[in-house]
Specification:
Elements: E1 5-9, H1 14-27, E2 31-34, E3 56-62, E4 69-74, H2 79-90, E5 93-96, H3 101-107, H4 141-148, H5 154-163, H6 174-190, H7 197-216, E6 221-226, H8 230-234, H9 239-246, E7 254-260, H10 263-266, H11 279-287, H12 292-306, H13 313-329, H14 337-347, H15 354-366, H16 380-391, E8 401-406, H17 410-424, E9 430-433, E10 442-447, H18 453-460, H19 467-481, H20 485-498, H21 504-517, H22 521-541, H23 546-566, H24 572-591, H25 596-611, H26 617-629, H27 635-645, H28 652-663, H29 674-681, H30 683-695, H31 698-713, H32 717-729, H33 753-767, H34 774-781
Parallel strand pairs: 1-6, 2-5, 2-6
Antiparallel strand pairs: 3-4, 3-7, 8-10, 9-10
């Protein structure tokens, strides 16, 4: 070759990767420069480690601000990765030659450098932004070239022009000459394409290229870079001019390492501007030695079979034929992803798009997660996390999965503590999900490892060198910084779940101090549930929660004292909010251990609320309902209170509010329809509501209708239907419904006392009141 070899590529393009390999095999350069941060040069030998498995990424972060970070991802089919491995395998010098990360990270957030248009996705470097994602330029070179060629889809043009091009038997450098010519024309028209960083980066690249040529000779250097930069690197400039562009650039102290990456994060839809639409498909094209369409269809068939779809070899053969026919009809050299997808839909999926979503997720994009050897540099916290992951057999995976834990087992309890500690540190590897079953000893987590979590771990490293010490330090700092009582109670709950015994005392001191100074009943009510949940789980986790129980009891007693006066004189919105507080406190008090005194005080408070006329109707109705559910209010007394609330002297809006509070779902307005079953089984209450509703004056009916509709719409359809049937029967003399001999639709002609008596022995058996005999056991079996 004559002069340095400039290999302009598309990032993560398998066609570019194959072309780079062919060009390097032909030219045999003594030195290979690759677009990337020079700080990572010391990490290049790790790429030869057999434990290094792409996709991986170079991670650079600011030492003093780990959240300011950037990624340079590399997949097995990335041209840069192919060039790196070629140089290591052939003993060529190799190093990165892009603008150093010390400047790149310092530029982040500076509008002077155009962060809002942070690099092009295709043909450019795709320089990372602060959060490790990429943004596309105003000018997308690939899209412009595709449009010029008459294509409306850049990916389809790329496949036809590069991926489906037969193996080149002539000059292996010819493809790069063609790409350079096209990019030169684009740069003449669009300049730097809207990214103010490009001229600075390209000036640094030219300086590195000059240094390599001086060291190894003009004809012994190859530079693998985004095709967008090739015209700038070939441009004749002076060293003085390039250095002038670099003069005075801001700097930050950085650290660099390798981290695992995923195919999913290579996808453009993840926000990565230099990404591709189908990393799994491109990986297949790069790895398939021959017959890529046949091999792809076989993969698809295997996936569908795993999901119990009936797919045979005949389906595969027919799908391959159809894909080839579609490609011929559309004038394409080979079937692309569009043709294979259409063929799979028609042949294997019976025309349905539903299985295609699975294929796209698992194969077209994929859940491949790379691996990095243990020798890669890492912050101490990351090393401790890696050790815990191995010890607890919690392998990071790119695919989301559910993890069910039984906290009675030591290993599962340790896993739970680790996940809770990481969440406290802001490393959301796991997200709690609804546990299967009702036992407090069970937890369910949804786990999914994202590459950005490495940045979160680096950020959390300022709190300590181990997960335990870091979580403890952050919890202590959070207790000092918290301004609201609910924040401290939530922190106390998290400390118990994460088992942070050293952090709990300062958190409890902060909790006691804020609870003593806070007199707002609403804030106290918001704080109590977290404490009650913590005490409930404390027994399962064998944690000492005596101090927490004392604070929770004191908090509950203060609520009992302050709630009645706080409920007087509230408007409709205030009453609705306070009703939610009453529900949460009622639930929390029942979770408190050894809380007889608190329960008695709370019952007295509810009785005062239910009978005090100055309390809004919604609160009076809710208090009566809670007492009735707990068996502390007789049914006759509940009917009397409803009769008083629905008497002619009560304003219709206030009566409707009482009904909503009484028969509305527990846990707040509209949460569930349990009040409907109450009316179904107590027709006296239903008759009172029915009689009141029919007596509401016409001028007031439109005012109360939205409130009643909201209440009754929360009931299940079957409950609403049953209520309608009961109302249609009409009231009896005693306020209930009369069962006539003819019966009513959906009901029998009358009470069958013999059948009702037959239920009692089985009910005693189910409740465990007596042991069954052999005949009864046989009957249960039947």
């Amino acid at each position: 070759m004559t002069g340095p070899l400039l290999l302009g590529v598309r990032h993560h393009g398998p066609g570019s990767a194959r072309a780079v390999r062919a060009a390097l095999d032909a030219a045999r350069p003594a030195a290979v420069l690759i677009e990337g941060p020079p700080e990572a040069d010391a990490l290049l030998p790790l790429a030869a480690d057999e434990r290094m498995r792409p996709p991986v990424a170079l991670l650079a972060h600011a030492v003093d601000d780990p959240g300011k970070a950037a990624f340079w991802p590399l997949a097995a089919f990335s041209p840069e990765w192919v060039a790196l491995r070629w140089a290591l395998d052939h003993g060529a010098a190799v190093r990165f030659a892009d603008l150093p990360a010390t400047h790149t990270l310092a530029m982040t957030g500076d509008p002077t450098w155009g962060d809002e248009d942070d690099d092009t996705g295709d043909g450019d470097s795709g320089e990372p932004s602060a959060d490790g994602r990429r943004r596309g330029l105003r000018v997308d070179p690939l899209a412009v070239l595709a449009e010029t060629a008459g294509y409306d889809d850049p990916e389809r043009w790329w496949e036809d022009a590069v991926e489906h091009r037969a193996a080149h038997t002539g000059d292996p450098l010819a493809p790069f000459a063609a790409v350079a010519e096209a990019m030169t024309a684009l740069r003449e028209t669009y300049g730097h394409g809207g990214n103010a960083r490009d001229p600075v980066r390209e000036a640094y690249m030219r300086l590195q290229l000059r240094a390599a040529r001086k060291e190894h000779g003009d004809d012994a250097v190859a530079f693998v870079c985004g095709a967008w930069h090739v015209p700038a690197l070939a441009e004749k400039t002076t060293v003085t001019a390039d250095r002038a562009l670099l003069k005075g650039l801001a700097k930050v102290r950085t650290e660099t390492t390798w981290v695992p990456w995923t195919h999913r994060r290579l996808a453009r839809r993840s926000g990565y501007g230099a990404g591709i639409d189908s990393p799994g498909w491109y990986g297949h094209l790069f790895a398939a030695p021959d017959r890529p369409v046949e091999r792809w269809m076989t993969k698809v068939a295997g996936l569908l079979r795993e999901e119990d779809h009936p797919v045979s070899s005949a389906h595969v053969i027919e799908a391959v034929r159809l894909a080839g026919t579609l490609a011929a009809m559309r004038g394409r050299p080979l079937p692309g992803l569009t043709e294979t997808t259409d063929a799979v839909r028609a042949v294997m999926c019976d025309g349905s798009d539903v299985p295609l979503a699975l294929i796209r997720d698992r194969l077209v994009v994929g859940d491949v997660l790379g691996e990095v050897p243990d020798g890669a540099p890492a912050v101490p916290l990351q090393r401790d996390l890696n050790r815990l992951q191995r010890t607890l057999r919690l392998r990071p995976e790119a695919a989301e999965r559910e993890l069910d834990l039984d906290l009675r087992k030591d290993t599962d309890a340790a896993r739970s503590r680790l996940l809770h500690r990481l969440r406290l540190l802001g490393v959301d590897w796991g997200e709690p999900a609804r546990a299967r079953g009702t036992g407090t000893f069970r937890e369910t987590w949804r786990l999914r490892w994202e590459p950005e979590l490495h940045v979160r771990v680096a950020e959390a490293g300022v709190w300590g060198t181990t997960v335990l010490s870091a979580a403890t330090a952050k919890a202590e700092a959070g207790a000092v910084a918290a301004t609201a009582l609910a924040e401290v109670t939530a922190l106390a709950e998290r400390c118990l779940l994460a088992d942070l015994p050293e952090a709990l005392p300062p958190v409890m001191r902060a909790l006691a101090d804020r609870a003593a100074l806070d007199a707002d009943v609403g804030r106290l009510a918001l704080a109590l549930p977290a404490l009650a949940r913590s005490l409930r789980y404390g027994d399962v986790r064998a944690t000492d929660a005596a101090a927490l129980a004392e604070v929770a009891t004191g908090l509950a007693l203060r609520i009992c004292v302050g709630l009645p006066p706080a409920c007087a004189g509230l408007d409709a919105d205030g009453a609705a909010e306070m009703r939610g507080h009453v529900d949460t406190v009622h639930t929390a008090i029942r979770l408190l251990p050894d809380a007889d005194e608190v329960t008695a005080r709370w019952t007295a408070v509810l009785e005062r609320l239910a009978r005090r006329d100055t309390v809004p109707g919604a609160l009076r109705g809710r208090a009566a309902r809670l007492l009735l559910d707990d068996g502390r209010l007789a049914e006759d007394e509940a009917a009397r209170l409803m009769g008083l609330a629905l008497s002619p002297g009560t304003a219709p809006a206030e009566a409707a509010a009482w009904i909503e509070g009484f028969v509305g779902g527990t846990g707040g307005p509209g949460r569930d329809g349990s009040g409907g079953m109450l009316l179904v089984h107590d027709e006296r209450l239903l008759a009172l509501v029915d009689a009141w509703l029919t007596a509401v004056p016409a001028e007031a009916f439109t005012d109360v209708l939205p409130l009643l509709r909201r209440t009754f719409s929360a009931y299940e359809p079957g409950v609403r239907r049953t209520l309608g049937e009961l109302v249609r029967r009409g009231p009896s003399g005693g306020g209930g419904a009369t069962l006539t001999e003819a019966g009513a639709p959906g009901f029998g002609p009358g009470l069958d006392e013999a059948r009702a008596d037959g239920v009692l022995p089985l009910l005693d058996l189910l409740l465990g009141h007596r042991r069954p005999n052999d005949d009864e056991l046989a009957g249960v079996g039947r």
